[in-house]
Structures are given as C-alpha cells and as structure tokens.
Design a protein that fits this description.
heterodimer; A: Rossmann fold; Ku70, Chain: A, Domain 2; Ku70, Chain: A, domain 4; two-stranded antiparallel sheet; 21 strands; B: Ku70, Chain: A, Domain 2; seven-stranded mixed barrel; 36% helix; extended; Ku_C_sf (chain B); ATP-binding (chain B); double-stranded DNA binding (chain B); DNA-binding (chain B)
C-alpha cells in the first residue's frame, strides 16, 4: 500500500494555515498486512496510515484549527478530482471544500473509511506495465493544484506522502520507465519551486527495508548520508504524529516592541514575547439550547436610583471618608500613567537578591531588534554577557500604561540539546511585587517563648538520603500535560464526533507509585519518619488539634442532624409548606445534608426541593 | 475600652525635654506602634515620617472603611520606670479625649519644644512601653500588631545597649520586665531604621542585629531611612487565610502536617463604581450607582431575548461550536482529590527562574506541631545543602477543577523563633510552553557582536550601577518599595476629598526614585557611563519612517572628548546641554551653591530660575531647621548669599526679601533665634532699591531689618 499525504500551508497575514494530506493506495496493500515475525503491530500499512492521519487531524483541530487540509488517495480504482485524472481520489465530506479547515464530520467519516474503502474507492495496481497512466505523477499534480491557495511567502505548504512502495515504477520497463521517472521528478521539482515542501512517510514491509535510493531519494532531493538518516527520523515523526499532545499551537509573534532606556539617554529596541502563558479551555460561545444558534450579549446600564436606562457614564466614584469622590476616566488613566510606556534601567543586583517569592505573573521574554534602532543588538548582547558572567540581573521599571511595574531582567543563556533549542538566548522579564503585595506570614506563628525546634544533623542526614533516593534526574518543566485541559479536549472531541464512550484521560501528574514502592525508597522514607517522628508516633492522634471553627461547625452539623429528624421533609415539600418554616429550620435540613447555607429564603427552599426531588 | 469609641485621639505631652516620640495608631484589627527618636540627627527624616503617618492614615481609611481608628500621640519623657509610664498611657487610651490634634500639627508643635538631648537612655524602655501600649489594646484587638522603632544608627545609642550588655540586664527586675512586657506580643515587627546621616554603624548594628531581637522577641528589619522606605509601614496587613491545611504526602505512609498561605498576592488598583447623575440632587439617600445588565439575544433576531435557563455553553471545535450543558460539564469534569503529594526531588538547575507562573505561596509546618516543624526543618536544610528542590502536585480544595504542579524551594529562617518554611511556585504544564525559536547570539553577524573593549565597558557598567552594595542595605528591595500607582491614587483621593476639582498632581518626588534611576548613583559613576556611551553607537534606522513617539537619542561624541550631555526630562523629550557640564536639575547636599548657580545658568527653560530659587529656599530652611547647635549656620549663610546674588542678577529682589522675612520669623518661632543673631553678625540685609530697581525696600530699612526684629525675640 502506498499512501501519500501532502501538506500544510500557512498564510501569515490572515493567520490562516492549511494542511493538506493526500494519500493513495495501491492494490497490493490489502494483501500486504504486516504479520511479520519481527513486527509486533498486527496492523496493515493502510491502517497505520489512516490511524496516523486521523489522530493528527484530531490534534490539529484543537491545536491549529485554522490550518487547512486535503486528503487524497492515489492508485485508486475510482477517481475524484478537479483535474479528472485517473487513479487519484480526493476524500471529502459535504459542506467542505477540498482544501479546507478540518471539520468534525471529516474526522468522523475518515475514521470509518476502512470499512467502506474497498467498496467506494477501491485500489488498483499502481502503474501497470504498458499503460501510460502515472498515478504518482497525477497525485503530485492534484496535490499541487490543491495547494495553489495562498502565497508561498506567508503560508507553509506541505505535502506528506504515505507509501509502502519504494519502487513505484518497478513494473514498467524501458523508455516508458525513464520517461515516467523524469516527468514525475520534474513534477515534484516544480511543486517544490512553488514553495511546497514534500515529505515522505515510508512504511516498510517486514521482509524488506524501504529502499529510498531506488526512487524517492531523488524526489526528495536527498543525497549521501541524508538517505541513511532519513528513515529513522521518519519513524520518530510518525510516532509524533500519532502521539501528539492536544495542545494549542501559537505562531511566534511579538507582544510588543518596547524601548529600553539604559543610561544617559541611550535607548535600545526590544521585542517582547510570551513564551509561557497558562492555557485555558477555549472561549465560551453562548448558544440557545433550543436551536443551538449562537447568542449575542447586550449590555445595558441602569441607574440604581431611578431605574432609568443610561449611557455608559464618563465618571466613576470611590467612597472615602463618607463621601463619594469622583474621578473621570481621564483622571484615572493619568493616575495610572506614572511613566512613559518604556522600560528604564535602575541598576543591577546580584542574582541572590532575586528571592523565590519575588514573583507575581508569568515572565515575558525579551529579545533585541535592530529594526528601528541600529546597534540595539550589540548593546543588548554586551549587557547580556556581562550579566551572565557577573551573575547579576538588571532592575528596571516597566511603565506600561495598564500595569506599571518594577521588573527584574534575568539573562538566560541559550540551552540546546539534540532536538534543538530548549531555552532561547535573551532575557526574561520577571515582574516583581511591591511591598503592598508581600505578606509576612511566617511571622504569624512565631514561637514566643522559645526558639523553634530545628532539625538535628542526623535528621538532616536522613532527609538528604531520602532526597538522593527520590531524585527526578532529568526532570523537565513541561513533562506534564494539564489533566483538566486534556480531559476537556477529549470530552469536546467525543461530543463533537458523537463517540459513544467518554474517553479516559490519564493523569500524568500523579506520583510514580511503582517508583515509590521500591524497597530503597521505602526504607529511606521509613528511616526519615522514625528519625523525625520517633518509633511509636501516632500520626493521626497528634493531629487531633481541631480549630475552634471546625469544632463549631461539627457541633452545628450534629444539632442540625438531630433537629432535622423532627420534620417530615418530603411531606412538607409536597404540601408546599416549606414556606411556613423559618430560615433556621430550613437550615437544619441544609446543614444535615451538607448543602450550601447561603441565599435568601426562596433560594433555600428551592435548594431543598431540588434535593428532595433528586433523592 | 477602645472598641467602639469613635475617633480616638489623645495627646500626652510632657513638659521636660526628651527625645523619644511615640505615635501609636490604633484601630479595631490592627495596632501599630511607632517609636521614634526625634533627635536632631533624624532631622529631615522626621518630616518624611510625618508624611508617612498621614498617608498611612489615609490608606487605612481606604482599606478599612468600616473600621474605626484612633491615633494617640505620645511625647514621652523620663522613662525611669515603664510602669509609671504605662499608667499615663492607659489613662490616655481609655479616655476618648477631646483633645483634637492631628498628626501634622502635633509633630510641628512638638518640634518647638524639643531641644537636643544626647542622652537616649530609654530606648529599651521605649520598646517596653510600646509593648505595654500594644498589650493594653491587644485584649480587644487581636491580630496584627506592629511596632516600629525608628532610631538613627549613631553613637548615642551605644550607651543604652552597652549598658545592657555589661550585665545589668540580668538583674531580676529587668528580666521580669522583659518577659512580661515583650513576650505576649503575637508578631511584632521591629523596624530599625538606618539613618542616612550616619556613616559608621557596624558596632551598634551588631547588638541590634544580634542580641536585641533575641532578648525582646522582635523581628528586626533594618531599612535605609531614605525617602520612601518608611512607607513600608503602610503595609496593608490583610488578615492571612490559609489556602490549604492538611498533609504534605511524601508517600502514602509518610506525611507532614502543613498549612499553606499566600506569600505574595497582587494588590490591585481598586475598582471604581460607575456614577449616575440621574438622581435628583435633593435626594440625600441616592446611591448614584449604576447596575449593569446583560441580555442574551439571538444573533439574527435582535428582538428575541433568550432567558438564562435556555442558554447553553458552546466550545469551538474546528469551525463548529459544540454545545455542552452545564450538567454534562459537571458530570465529566476532571475532579481530583484534595491532596498535596510529593512527586520527587530534583536539582535546582532543572528549574529556571522564569518558569514561575504565578504569585507565590508559603508552606509552614502546622503551628504547635513539633514533629512537623522538625520534618520541615530537616527537609529545608537538606534541600539547601544538596541544592535540591521538590516537585509537588497540589489540589488545595475538594472540588477544585484542576491540579497544580509546582516547585517547593527551601526558605531557611535566619531568626531563632521563626520556623523554617518552603516557598511554593507554580510550574507550567506542557500546554503552556510555546516553543518559539530564536537565533543564537553567536550566530548573529559581526556587526551585532560587541568587541572586547565594549564588553569591558559593559562589565564595568553592570558592576558599578550596583543597587546592593555590600556596606549598605539593598536599595529598591521589593519588600520596601511601595506601589507608586496606588500611592498616587491615595494621594489624589485625599486631595479630592478636600477639594473635589483638584487636578492629578505629578508623581511625588520620593516616588520618582522607583521609576527613574538614582541621579546620585549616575553622578558617582559618570566616568563609567560616559565610557559606555562612547563605545556603543546607536543609530536610527534610516529606512524606517521616523515616529516621533519613539524615545531614543544618540549621544553625539566629538573629538576633543567633550560629550554633549543628553538627558531626558519628564516628558521623555531629550534635552541637550552642550557646555560639557553635568546637568543639574536639583540642589544636592554636597555643593548646594554650585548646584544653584548651575541651575540659574541653565538656558533650556524659563522654569529653571524659579525652580532653582525655590529649591534653594527650602534647602536653607532645612539647613537651619536641622542644624545642631549652629553647626550648619555657615553653610546656610553661604547659600543665603548665593541666593541673594542670584536674585539681584535675575531682578527678583522681592523673592529674596520675602524669603528672608519669613525665615527670620520662622527662626524666632522655633527657638532658632540664634540664627538671626548669626545673620546680623554677618551683615546680611534685604535687597534695597539701590541694588535692584524693582525692590520696594529702602536701603536703611534693609540694613536695619534684622536688627529691628531682634529685640522682639529676646
């Protein structure tokens, strides 16, 4: 089987991206299921390809739903394409262009294509000896035509080819073969010149390795060592496509261009980027539950005194000393604007002055730019290197109009590993708290009579041993997926695709139980415990120190439970006699059933009725 | 007691001279005791302190609108025994006195009575007294109790502490005093202010930093008494609430009882309500509020309003929107169990500083639980030793919709009675990281690479513009830096409460220190900065259209080494001064006369002459006011002469004449008549008509002015 997939295009201006897969199938594929001895996957190549495409579609619709995709099969019995070429079938669903954003329907129908494939599309031997049809050529032609949309500069156009046939023209002989190879390679070259990158995802047969050098090396333009390295890298790519995390993808884009004034009026230009920002489930669109049509929110202002409808007022007030102090919006913005919207150097401090609690929000990354001020990068690099060398950070004031704040600029050296850049070089702008934002909590529970207990050397030793045991050697900050977010995406997908069962999303953030159960770890923990708590320490008993509030709460719950039993709630509820009770009485019920106690009487009654109704 | 009494103000002023001054500000939930030494050495700072107190009060009014507060002012004397003092204190605390005295007035009025006094034997007693004061109210007040001792770190303090050191402390009586008075305080913070005016401080510092807090159970914070640092008194002191109480699970079998609080939490700009002027002006009970109402309408049919219960949430899935009802959402939501679990330890280097995502929490061992405290302490110390941090998975509350993965870093306590604790910072999830690629700096073209000379210059700059010099307390510490926006808001609020149509003033001078580099620091390192500017060249890109809004300038350097000075004024517009002198925009302590002349000579704005005169006048006032037995009179005289000369040159005789009259009047009212005498002896006179044509003073009057006024003062 041979599948092919073309690919991804992006327009920068409109932020539109397209993906385009095209895949093809050869007759032999059905016979070629991989049941080889060495191969543990009992899947056919076709299944692997379909599965891979389907999974990456599902990831893509969440991550970059504006990308556009087309899927086409080649070496097919049926044909369906605009050019009306033989052996090429563009897969599509209703209400969708051939190259368009993926829809739930596309994914759903594509998921069940295996069942209907032989019947509706069917596959034939690729290039039959003697015939003049060149389905690979046709497929490239169709793919190129599909990817015509959007300019090459602003879009990223890709064509991915899935295939298990390393010798597509094997059955042809003589001049016809050389001719076909020549035209096909020319076709591919033309496409690449138009800014379309072609990638190959070969699926090897168990008995023989996919041989790139027969044909595809030329098509991809690989030479020498690249050929031998290509196959292993493809394996990774394939795995990546299948196991990709559902994650919103962002295009690299600067937040803002700012001016950094250093000394004596020397200013340089910086671009700021958001490298770390909490991701939240997408925005909510309110729908009418009857028609499922989107709703539009309308805001209106009502005067609390007269009930009159008013326009958005220009004035605000703040109660102070028993009076209402008025502010106009201009005055408010003037108060907030303490500095120009630039960043100003105040001085430098050793890194040890940046404490762990000096943090409020995610940091912003800054990288120099010479676009407007030539020479910025040079100054920036000089300072950056000095700061790294001397282990200092710069203290500066960032006077943004919405949030003027003191910031620490911490130089970050570039970190790379085999997979590329891990940490880019530049500075991170860390937002510092003001004295107003810092609380001195640790002083609350100061021991007034004696020094607080400190660990002995023995205890510290045991803790050290423990630390050596439970050591996450290559811990990386982003190794955990957000379980709530992944669950949300999975649910969304299940609902959109009408999947029957709710998917289970594994929570990677749970502690490694197996690792913790290793005897070495258990021993170290036990020793630490004995060392600190003593041999016969009753952990639960020591913690019976309840606060007054919780005692009170418990007592209240107990009395409520007792009192609650005096009433026949079901009857009261049915007879509509709940209104006759006092709030105190109503709360007995709520308290006894662990329901919230807040709200007006009406609300309480509703809550009780709901609860009884359910029970 | 003071619980419900309305504004409570009392003042107790002793007749004799002493140098300790106490202000205690009391209200329902908070108690602050300011113990201030107002020896002349504190000088200028005292006025700053006054401002701080006033602002502190405003702040309180804003933050706790519904709390009643009172201010008691004490001018304390003869602290032979704190018990006798105590009585006086209590008397004035319990009696809601009718003596109305605002801080501003009282500070000024008391100033008159203060004579210099070298003996401050009562420092320790004052601390005791402050504690008694706090204790007196503590029974009703409860939590936040703060005590601030403001003393300059100068020689005088040595004596009382030396006294303590020499063994006299250990008398039984002293000990009981210690225990009785100081210990019951829950969490007093003692601020020891490092006066700007003291040069050496090492020896008494050692006592204050070492034994003193230990003996008194106070938290000692040393701050630099400059401009705004005193504003740290204004800390809002929100009653802290735990976000988690329970087990820190190292494993299912080994747990530590901990409490978790917020360590930092951003204090936001207050939300102001929208004002409605619809209510008739006669309506006294009008709230003037505006309610905001939302209605949901069909997108294609703007008339039809959809009731709330008919609405359903929809999330985007590709081009479509998938409706999910709230019941469905609730049923399938991720619901982790409440717990705080250890995932493992890792090396500090694995967690880069910029991964911290949010505000910070603090983990402390359950108060009173000895074993938990030990366990935390052992882990903290081991982590510190091994350079490790712990990774945790936290679910603070039952029903919380998500887990938090974060890093626990050790916070070793340097004070004996504060237990060790951890800081907790939230780390990002895989979804939160955006993998953008940036060019490596070494791969950039040679024009962007600094050469060796440039690197050296930048090294020097980084070293010299140091805000944490070893011999001084760290400058601009976040812990002591107020939020300038909130400060200004409170200031405007106060202004507006007095005069509703007052404008927003420009930023307070002391707050400017937060947003602009310290001119002193720049001046000290002028050579380094000039070198840096000379070596680096910035040019505007000619291809880009010049946008006038961009703030940048290029220092033009010419061959003979004279650098044209470029500085930015308040509006961000560069101003040039090509005379090769540093720009002087204010009068400094070191060379006031030169500064004044330089300012008068500035020709880049009309306002400089007036500004120079104004600053000079206030500088002279300061000198005279803060002088100790006439030590600053000579300097003041020089300044006065310079001012006089300047006024003649600028044809502004009235400015000088009015000023001199005011000054004399001030001196006579403030026991500073010696300065007037001094002036007479140096033959200072008003500017007569003969010297400046605009003057309305005759020569004779000018000469006799001081002589005439003098008898009145005697």
């Amino acid at each position: 089987m041979k599948t092919r997939r073309t690919d991804s295009i992006r327009t920068g201006s409109t932020e539109k991206k397209w993906w385009c897969f095209s895949s093809t199938l050869r007759l032999r594929c059905s016979a070629l299921s991989t049941r080889g001895s060495g191969d543990q996957h009992e899947e056919s190549h076709f299944h692997v390809a379909i599965d891979c495409i389907s999974k990456s579609l599902k990831t893509q619709i969440i991550g970059r739903s504006n990308d556009e995709v087309a899927i086409c099969f080649f070496n097919t019995r049926e044909k369906k394409n605009l050019q009306d070429l033989n052996g090429v079938f563009v897969f599509n669903v209703v209400e969708r262009e051939h190259l368009d954003r993926p829809t739930a329907r596309l994914i759903k129908e594509f998921d069940c294509i295996e069942e209907t494939f032989m019947h509706s599309i069917g596959s034939v031997h690729g290039i039959i000896a003697g015939s003049r049809e060149n389905s690979l050529y046709n497929a490239l032609w169709v793919g190129q035509a599909l990817l015509r949309k959007g300019s090459a500069k602003t879009t990223d156009k890709r064509m991915l080819i899935f295939t298990n046939e390393d010798n597509p023209f094997g059955s042809v002989k003589g001049a016809a073969k050389t001719d076909m190879i020549r035209t096909t390679l020319q076709r591919a070259k033309d496409a690449q010149e138009l800014g379309i990158s072609i990638e190959l995802l070969p699926l090897s047969r168990p008995d023989e390795e996919f041989n790139l050098s027969i044909f595809y090396a030329d098509l991809l333009g690989l030479e020498g060592e690249d050929i031998t390295q290509y196959i292993p890298s493809v394996g990774e790519k394939l795995e990546d496509m299948k196991g990709q995390l559902r994650k919103l993808m962002f295009k690299k884009r600067k937040i803002r261009r700012i001016t950094f004034s250093i000394v004596n009026g020397i200013s340089i230009e910086l671009n700021t980027y958001a490298l770390l920002r909490p991701t939240v489930p997408g925005s909510i669109t309110w729908l009418d539950s009857v028609t499922n049509l989107p709703l539009k929110a309308e805001r209106s202002f009502i005067c609390a005194d007269t009930g009159a409808l008013v326009q958005e007022p220009p004035k605000r007030f703040y109660p102070y000393k028993g009076k209402n102090i008025m502010f106009t919006t201009e005055e408010l913005s003037k108060i907030k604007r303490v500095s120009t919207g630039h960043i100003r150097l105040l001085g430098f401090k050793p890194l040890s002055c940046l404490k762990d609690y000096h943090n409020l929000r995610p940091a912003t990354f800054v990288y120099p730019s010479d676009e407007e001020i030539v020479g910025s990068t040079c100054i920036f690099i000089a300072l950056y290197r000095s700061m790294l060398r001397l282990e200092r950070f710069a203290l500066a004031f960032y006077g943004s109009s919405s949030h003027p704040q003191m910031v620490a600029l911490v130089a970050q050296d570039e970190i790379t590993d085999s997979s590329g850049q891990v940490e880019p070089p530049g500075m991170h702008m860390i937002y510092l708290p003001y004295s107003d934002d810092i609380r001195h909590v640790e002083e609350l529970h100061m021991d007034t009579n004696a020094a607080t207990p400190r660990a002995s050397d023995d205890q510290i030793g045991k803790a050290t041993a423990l630390m050596k045991r439970i050591d996450l050697k290559d811990f990386s900050v982003c190794q955990f997926a957000n379980p709530a977010l992944q669950r949300h995406y999975a649910v969304l997908q299940a609902l959109a695709l009408d999947e029957d069962e709710m998917p289970e999303v594994s929570d990677e953030t749970l502690p490694d139980e197996q690792g913790m159960a290793r005897p070495g770890v258990v021993n170290a923990l036990e020793e630490f415990k004995i060392c600190v708590y003593g041999e016969n320490y009753d952990y639960e008993a020591s913690t019976k120190t309840e606060s007054d509030a919780s005692k009170k709460r418990k007592a209240a719950a107990e009395t409520a439970a007792m009192e609650c039993a005096h009433y026949d709630w079901a009857e009261l509820c049915e007879g509509g006699k709940l209104t006759g009770l006092t709030i105190v009485e109503l709360k007995y019920y709520l308290n006894a059933h662990n329901l919230p106690l807040t709200g007006k009487k009406e609300v309480l009654i509703n809550r009780i009725m709901n609860h009884i109704g359910k029970a | 007691m003071i619980t419900t009494s309305a504004e409570l103000r009392a003042v107790f002023v002793s007749k004799t001279n002493q140098s300790i001054y106490i202000i205690s500000i009391v209200h329902l939930f908070e108690l602050l005791c300011l113990l201030m030494d107002i020896m002349p050495s504190l000088g200028k700072a005292l006025r700053e302190l006054k401002n701080v107190c006033v602002q502190w009060r405003h702040r309180r009014l804003i933050l706790r609108k519904y709390c009643q507060q009172g201010i008691c002012l004490f001018f304390v004397n003869e602290l032979k025994d704190s018990l006798t003092m105590e009585k006086a204190v209590y008397i004035h605390l319990v009696v809601p006195s009718s003596v109305k005295l605002l801080i501003e007035e009282s500070v000024l009025s008391s100033r008159k009575r203060i004579q210099c006094c070298g003996n401050s034997a009562g420092v320790r007693n004052i601390v005791l007294l402050g504690n008694d004061l706090i204790l007196a109210c503590a029974c009703t007040i409860g939590r936040n109790q703060n005590m601030f001792l403001v003393i300059p770190a100068i020689n005088q303090l040595k004596s009382p502490f030396a006294l303590l050191k020499s063994g006299k402390v250990s008398t039984e009586r002293e000990q009981t005093l210690n225990r009785r008075a100081i210990m019951p305080c829950a969490s007093p913070r003692l601020y020891f202010c490092w006066s700007l005016y003291s040069k050496e401080s090492s020896d008494k510092g050692s006592y204050l930093e070492g034994q003193f807090p230990h003996e008194t159970n106070l938290i000692l914070v040393i701050i630099l008494l400059s401009h705004f640092t005193l504003r740290c008194f204004q800390n809002s002191n929100i009653s802290p609430v735990t976000i988690f109480r329970g087990d820190l699970e190292l494993s299912p079998r080994v747990k530590i009882k901990v409490w978790v609080y917020k360590k930092t939490s951003e204090e936001k700009f207050p939300t102001l309500k929208k004002y409605s002027d619809k209510a008739p002006s006669t309506d006294k009970f009008a709230t003037h509020e505006i309610k905001v109402d939302y209605e949901y309408k069909m997108a294609d049919d703007p008339v039809k309003v959809v009731p709330p219960e008919q609405r359903i949430k929809g999330y985007r899935y590709g081009p479509q929107v998938v409706p999910i009802s709230s019941a469905e959402l609730e049923a399938i939501k991720f619901k982790p169990e409440k717990s705080v679990k250890l995932l493992g330890f890792t090396s500090v280097s694995n967690i880069l500083r910029h991964y911290y995502m949010k505000d910070v929490s603090i983990f402390i061992a359950e108060p009173g639980n000895r074993e938990a405290t030990l366990a935390v302490s052992a882990l903290v110390k081991a982590m510190k030793k091994m350079n490790k941090v712990a990774i945790l998975r936290c679910v603070w509350r039952q029903g919380q919709g998500n887990v938090v993965v974060g890093v626990l870093t050790p916070n070793e306590s340097n004070q004996e009675n504060i237990p060790d604790s951890f800081y907790f910072n939230v780390l990002p999830f895989a979804e939160d990281v955006r993998e953008f690629q940036f060019r490596s700096f070494s791969g950039l073209p040679a024009s962007c690479q600094p050469n060796q000379q440039q690197e050296e210059a930048s090294d020097k700059l980084v070293m010299m513009l140091d805000l944490a010099q070893p011999e001084k307390p760290e400058d601009l510490r976040p812990d002591f830096t107020p939020n300038p926006v909130l400060e200004r808001f409170h200031h405007v609020l106060e202004l507006k409460s007095k005069k509703p149509d007052s404008d927003v003033p420009s930023l307070d001078k002391t707050l400017k220190r937060i947003i602009e580099p310290d001119p002193k620091l720049l001046l000290q390192n002028k050579a380094v900065i000039d070198e840096f500017c000379k070596l680096f060249d910035v040019k505007e890109n000619p291809k880009i259209k010049k946008s006038t809004r961009r703030l940048w300038t290029k220092p033009s350097s010419d061959g003979d080494g004279k650098n044209a000075e470029v500085s930015l004024n308040d509006h961000g517009v560069p101003s040039f001064n090509c005379e090769g002198k540093p720009i002087v925009s204010q009068i400094g302590d070191k060379t006031p006369v030169e500064d004044f002349k330089a300012m008068m000579a500035r020709r880049d704005g009309v306002e400089w002459v007036n500004k120079a005169m104004k600053e000079m006048k206030s500088f002279i006032y300061d000198l005279v006011e803060n002088s100790y037995e006439g030590d600053a009179y000579c300097k003041a005289l020089d300044c006065l002469i310079a001012l006089r000369k300047g006024c003649i040159v600028e044809q502004e005789p009235k400015q000088f004449n009015d000023f001199l009259r005011q000054l004399c009047k001030f001196c006579q009212e403030n026991d500073l008549a010696s300065f007037c005498k001094f002036l007479v002896s140096k033959q200072i006179m008003l500017i007569p008509k003969t010297e400046a044509i605009d003057s309305d003073v005759m020569e004779e009057d000018a000469i006799n002015f001081l002589v005439k006024t003098e008898p009145a003062t005697l």
